[in-house]
Design a protein that fits this description.
This protein is α+β, with helices and mostly antiparallel strands. Helices cover 28% and strands 32% of the residues. Strands 1, 2, 3, 4, 5, 6, 7, 8, 9, 10, 11, 12 and 13 form a 13-stranded mixed beta sheet that branches. The radius of gyration is 25 Å and the shape is elongated.
Length: 330
């Protein structure tokens, strides 16, 4: 039911941020002085309802470099990124892990790769990238533009506590004295207040302090060029997320569209002689799963019903083998 031409239309209706191939390209490419690159593989799960669309995706990367002695590719690191898209929360990404071998550090790979990702994310409507920094990341990630979570006053107060904690052992008296007038102690942030952990990381002694910090929750705020529901692949931007949901739904087989699934299921409901009834108080939802390179994996529509045992779901499932399976509630 999903042939090649149909799949191309469906992919063309999706915004970039929801396509695995776009996510793979975002975290790919040759970067750094050692010419390292990552082999990436992404997967996306997209959920449609009668009036909305959301998605969750992930990309795993295996970083490789070329050995100077024999030209062979060898593993140099790995990373995993999750991405979340919703109407209210917008689009965000979270770097679950990013580890480079010792020989791959200091080559500029991480900096260049993140610069590319930040640019593509901003173009595609992603508002922020977050991570939980550990080990060398507590110093390295602030240097890449990641900041503490929270409002400017909250970040300022957190940094003031860190500066106080580092005083003496890591920050000498002169350095502390220079920072003291800039520390945020209350709810007011003035011109020149210290609110950036990236700036703090450049202070003499701060590197040693941050490297001894067990973990930090950080985020990079981006400036999206357009909402995430506006695709960059040539299609006209949708008016809003609901319009994007309708556009994508129109490219699905009729029985799998949120606004058509209940009618398509009606004959099977009638065959139960009233044992299973449509539950109009809950929404029909359709989940589309795409694999690496935008390959079709499955399409599942869940129609809310009621049985003698209470609320349940009747699902229709289309797999990569092209077979449609109707699964009544058990």
């Amino acid at each position: 039911m999903i042939d090649g031409a149909h799949m191309q239309r469906l992919l063309g209706a999706l915004p970039d941020v929801l396509r695995p191939s776009w996510l793979e390209a975002t975290w790919s490419g040759v970067h750094g002085s050692a010419g390292m690159a990552a082999r990436t593989e992404a997967r996306a799960t997209i959920t449609l309802t009668g009036g909305g669309i959301s998605g969750r995706s992930e990309v795993a990367g295996a970083v490789e470099r070329i050995r100077a002695d024999d030209g062979r590719l060898v593993r140099a690191g790995r990373f995993l990124v999750h991405q979340f898209v919703g109407e209210e929360a917008g689009a965000t990404a979270h770097l679950d892990s990013f580890a480079l071998d010792e020989s791959a550090r200091g080559t500029g790979y991480a900096s260049e790769l993140h610069g590319q990702a930040f640019t593509r994310y901003a173009e595609a409507g992603v508002g922020s990238v977050s991570l939980d920094a550990i080990d060398v990341g507590t110093y390295a990630w602030p240097r890449q533009g990641y900041e503490l979570l929270g409002t400017p006053p909250e970040r300022g107060r957190r940094l003031a506590a860190m500066v106080d904690d580092a005083r003496g052992r890591y920050l000498d008296d002169a350095t502390y004295a220079a920072l003291a007038p800039r520390l945020v102690r209350g709810d007011e942030v003035g011109l020149g207040s210290l609110t950036s952990i990236g700036e703090f990381a450049t202070v003499p002694g701060a590197k040693e302090y941050l490297l001894r910090t067990s973990s930090l929750s950080l985020s990079k705020t981006l400036e999206p060029a357009a909402p995430w529901w506006a695709p960059l692949g040539g299609a006209a931007p949708a008016r809003d997320a609901a319009a994007m949901a309708r556009r994508v739904s129109a490219e699905l087989p009729p029985a799998f569209r949120p606004d058509g699934a209940a009618a398509a299921l009606a004959p099977q409901l009638d065959a139960t002689r009233g044992a299973v009834l449509l539950d109009t108080g809950r929404e029909v939802s359709t989940t589309l799963t795409l694999g690496a390179g935008d390959t079709f994996e499955s399409l599942t529509t869940s129609v809310p019903v009621r049985t003698s045992a209470g609320p349940a779901s009747w699902t229709l499932h289309l797999g990569s083998d092209g077979a449609v399976r109707s699964n009544p509630p058990t």
